[in-house]
Amino acid sequence: MLTLGVLISGRGSNLQAILAAIADGRLHARVAVVISNVADAPGLAHASAAGVPTEVHSHRGWPSREDYDARLVQVLRAHQVDLVCLAGFMRRLTSVLIDAFPNRVLNVHPSLLPAFPGVDAQRQALDYGVRVAGCTVHLVTPTVDAGPIVLQAAVPVADGDTVETLSARLYPEAIRLIGEGRGRVEGRRWLSDPR
């Protein structure tokens, strides 16, 4: 069984999607720990309600980003995490954490990358006037939103469509593919292995 460590900063909608996929059997994994850099992040309550251990480690007061990431690595390793899932974690990771879990740090981004990287992707897309929005699940590299794409899906921009509902479907599926060894990284690309 795949052991996940989930990093959050906010409401935890992607965390809820992961927990729901585990609960209904779509994802054969367990969340060993949810870590937030924000003490009052609503997602912590979702984790606690599901019986998942939580920890808060503020990013403030550390000598450097690398020192903070080293602390996260200690916590994740203490929980024997196989895969790190960023679920609305609003911090750029350094190579300290990325290298500690090579090709095992996953992020969900609310656009069809490489379009609209960084923060507020939905606003960027709407301001640009796109007719199709989407979601990308990718491996994390030191360059923001530039890692190998594991899954990607487009959605027409229409009433009722939300990035959250699309993320809720895609993120657990990408975790499952990685957990089952259904792909590999070659250079800068993720290659899916059909089975």
Question: What do you see in this structure?
Answer:
The structure is a single chain. The protein is an alpha/beta fold and 195 residues long. It has one domain (2-192): Rossmann fold (3-Layer(aba) Sandwich). 32% of the residues lie in helices and 26% in strands. The chain contains six helices and nine strands; from the N terminus they run E-H-E-H-E-H-E-H-E-H-E-E-H-E-E. The chain has helices at residues 13-23, 43-49, 65-78, 95-100, 121-128, 163-179; strands spanning 2-8, 29-36, 54-56, 83-86, 105-109, 132-139, 149-156, 183-186, 189-192. Strands 3-2-1-4-5-6-7 form a seven-stranded mixed sheet. Strands 8-9 form a two-stranded antiparallel sheet. A hairpin with a 2-residue loop joins strand 8 and strand 9 (189-192). Helix 1 packs across helix 6. It is globular.
Helix % is 25-40%
CATH superfamily: Formyl transferase, N-terminal domain
Overall radius of gyration: 16 Å
Structural class: alpha/beta
What string gives the helices and strands in order?
EHEHEHEHEHEEHEE
Number of distinct beta strands: 9
Short description:
With 195 residues, this protein is α/β, with parallel strands linked by helices. It is built from six helices and nine strands, in the order E-H-E-H-E-H-E-H-E-H-E-E-H-E-E. Helix content is 32%, strand content 26%.
